[in-house]
Amino acid sequence: MTVVGISGALLAGCGDDGDGKDGSDKPFSGQSADQIAEKAVAATKKAESLRMKGDTRQPGGRTMTVDLAVDKKKNCDGTVRMQNARADVRQIGQDFYMRGDEAYWKTAFKGQQGAEKAIPKLKDKWAKVPAGQNADEGLCDKQKLIAAMDENKSDRKGMKKGGTTTVGGQEAIKLTKEKAGGEKLTLYVATEGEPYILRSSAEGGKTPNTATFSDYGKAVNPAKPAPGETVDLDEIAGAA
To answer: How remote is the C-alpha of 225 from its chain's centroid?
Structure first.
């Protein structure tokens, strides 16, 4: 299970309306959609921390859902779901922990020798994942998550300004773009304080998705799992 797909899909879609005259007069008066989006991307990258809740449909029709609080120091606390599998994740500095349900571990150990012996030992336990063996490392790297929005700059051209609405109790300006093939991208940017991205969505394409961003600047302090609740994944795999 990886967040590479969801981060790119959820965060692509900032752009320019060309003349800056359509849509609402306020806020961002006189600024084009491209200028607003550029400020939103920069502010979101600069933020010390945030919470991202979102989902995306992946190839094969599977849906992946994440709810993660992350910061620039790679502290992380949240949950990942895919189909009928769930895993709680925590990262404290360089230490990454994962507590998956049976369905998650069956997927993770699929095809590996000794899986039937290893999975019961992981029940209700936090598995400490050795450095370099964490396939989900990108989940807890805020800057990598946000960097995806700059990977394809062609996706950030041609958006239009709309009116203002409310997202999570905050006023936001709506930016939209119609892409070839009927895909529609929508971005909501905060109009008060820092121009943070509050919501992003894609409809009608191969990977429809939505993400809501909140808790900007809020400290991320995941509790370190107690020794009695923790197992070493290398030891479990070796014993199996």
So the answer is: 23
Give the C-alpha separation, 49 to 30, whole Å.
Answer: 30
pLDDT digit string, tens, across residues 196-239: 999 999 888 777 889 999 999 999 999 999 999 999 887 776 65
Tell me the average pLDDT across 4-24.
Answer: 43
Structure tokens at 76: 């992380």
CB under 8 Å to 122, separation ≥6 — which residues? 100, 105, 231, 236
Parallel/antiparallel/unpaired status of strands 160-167 and 126-129 = unpaired
Chain centre distance of CA 136? 12
Specify the pTM. Answer: 0.83
Distance CA 2, CA 136 (A): 5
Q: What would the two tokens of residue 221 be?
A: 């302090």
| Amino acid at position 155, single letter | D
Q: How confident is the model at residue 135 (pLDDT cuts 50, 70, 90)?
A: low
Query: What are the b/e assignments for 111-133, b being 16+ CB within 10 Å?
Result: eeeeeeebbeebeebbbbbeeee
End-to-end CA distance of the chain: 22
> Looking at residue 79, what DSSP letter applies?
E
